[in-house]
Amino acid sequence: MEYRNVTGHIYDIQGYAVHDGPGIRTTVYTKGCPLRCLWCHSPESQRHEFELGYLPIKCLGTELCKNACVDACPEGAISKNEPVQALDGSGLIQKISVDREKCTSCLKCTAVCISKALYSAGRDTTVDEVYERVIKDVGFFRNGGGITISGGEAMAQFEFTLNLAKRLKNDEIHICLDTTGFAPAEHYGEILPFVDLFLYDIKHMDSAMHRRLTGVPNELILSNARYIAEQGGALQIRVPVIPKLTDSDANLRATAEFCASLPREAVKLVQLLPYHKSGRMKYERLGWKYKLTNVEPPDEAVMLKVLEMFQSYGLNSQLH
User: Fold this and answer.
1) Long-range contacts of 142-145 (CB under 8 A, 24+ apart)
2) Pair (103, 203) in one structural domain
C-alpha cells in the first residue's frame, strides 16, 4: 500500500492510552482544530501554529540559568518575578512571568530553558517519524488495541492523517480516528478504508446552539456521521454531557434519536462523557482564560439517568 512521507504538526504522542478506543492504544495528537468548544480540555490542540507554554512549577529560577530566557526573548516578554521560596526549601529564587501581549511565540526562550518550564506546544514531524515511534508499542496492542489518530482535528491535516493511516495499515494495525466530523465528506470517503473505528463527537443537535458552544454549525457533522455509517464505516459516538450547555433532556433525547436513526450495524457504541475539570490548568500554561469556571461535573445519578435514556433507544451505551 503506497503512502507519502508528508510532514504534519503534532503536540504529543501518548502510549498506554485506554480511553481513546478499544484496548490499549497509542494516541497521536495532531495540532489544529476548526472548533472552539467552550469545554475543550486540550487548548494546545486548537491552533495549528506552535505556541509557548509555561509551567511555573518547573522553573528553577533565573539565578541558575543566568537569566537565559529573559535575555533570549527579542520582544522583552519575559521578566523576573518577586523572589519565592524554592520547593526544596533551599532559599529564595526568582521565577519568571510571560507577558502574553508581547510574546510572538518565536520560541527562542524554549531553546535555553534548562528545566523545560518554557516549552513549545507543538512540533513538526513526518509520517515515518511517527510510525517509528508508535511501532515500538505494538506489543501492547494485543487483545484489541492499536493506534488512535486524534487532535485537535486530525482531518484538518488531511494529507498527513491519510498517509499516516495508510502507513499503519500496512502493518495491519487497528486504527481509530478521533474526529469532530467537521471536514469535507469526500475526505472521510477517502480515508474510510484505512480506519477501523471512528470516534465521533456529537456535541449538540441544535445548530444555532452548536455554533454558540463550538464556533461552527452542526449540519456538516451530522451529515458526515450518516455518510460514514451508510458507507460501511464503524462509529463509536461520543456525547459530552455539560451542565447547562448540552445536558437538557430535549437535546440528549434528540441526540439519542439521531444515533438510533443511523444504520444499527454502524453504531458500535455510544459513550456518554461527563464534563470534567482536568484541562483547566492547561489554559494557564498557555496564558489563556478558561470560560467555564463556574461549571461543575454532573453527579453520578444524572449520568445514570442519561445512560438509561440512551439505552431505551436500543443503543449500546456506556458511561465514559
Assistant:
1) 143/23, 143/24, 144/22, 144/23, 144/174, 145/22, 145/23, 145/24, 145/25, 145/174
2) no
